[in-house]
Structure formats: C-alpha cells, structure tokens
Amino acid sequence: MYSKELLKGTLSAILLKLLSENERMYGYEISQKVKELTEGKIILKDGSLYPALQKMTADGLLSFKEEMVGGRVRKYYFLTRKGQKEKAAYFDELKDFILTLNNIVFPQLKPL
C-alpha cells in the first residue's frame, strides 16, 4: 500500500479516469474498483475519497444524482461537461509531471 502523501496528488486523476470510463459510480464502488485495478496497492479510505469527491463537485468537475437503493440513499457521481473538458488538460499536465519527475528521480529509466 502506498503512502497517503503519494496518493494525495493523484486522487483527482484516479477519479477523473474512473468516472470517464464508467459514466457514474458511487463512493464504495470507486474504492473497490481502485483496489481491484491496483491489486490492493491503493486503498482509498473514506477520509480521503469523500472530501475529494466533494471538492471536485464544488469545483464543478463532478455532479451527482441521489437514488434510493435498498432503502438507503446512494450518491452516484459523474463528470460534468467542465470535468470532461478539463480531464484532457489535467492528464496532459500529469503525464508531463511524471516524465519530469522520472528525469530527476530515475534518470536511468528511459520513456518508451
């Protein structure tokens, strides 16, 4: 499992990617999908996941729809138009940052 410091800067990218591929997801579903895709290396805890979802919603990148499921309200999050547009720019910036960081930390590794 990775440190929360490493995850903090990548959580928005993870959420943007998952929601762009799955149209809509609820919090527990997101955390389970991340756990599955990373073979348990990334565990999203409620204390980091839900504040990130709330911030991205406040920033206009996400919205949600509440539905009753099994007698409980479930929030399904999805990308807004703004989120769709900003996703590409965010991923371009993240990719460039990773390559730059790689040049500093692991200069022996050459990009493919």
Q: If you had to describe this structure to a student in words, what would you say it looks like?
A:
The chain has 112 residues and is α+β, with helices and mostly antiparallel strands. The chain has one domain (4-105): Orthogonal Bundle (Arc Repressor Mutant, subunit A). The protein contains five helices and two strands. The protein has helices at 4-8, 11-22, 27-37, 46-58, 81-105; strands at 62-69, 72-79. It has a two-stranded antiparallel sheet with strand order 1-2. A hairpin with a 2-residue loop joins β1 (62-69) and β2. The chain is globular and about 55 Å long. The mean pLDDT is 91.
Strand % is 5-15%
Instruction: Tell me the count of domains.
Output: 1
**Average pLDDT, to the nearest integer?**
91
Could you tell me the CATH topology label. Arc Repressor Mutant, subunit A
Indicate the percent of residues in helices: 55-70%
Shape: globular
Pfam families: PadR
Protein name: PadR family transcriptional regulator
Domain Transcription regulator PadR N-terminal: 15-86
InterPro entries: Metal_resp_DNA-bind_regulator, Tscrpt_reg_PadR_N, WH-like_DNA-bd_sf, WH_DNA-bd_sf
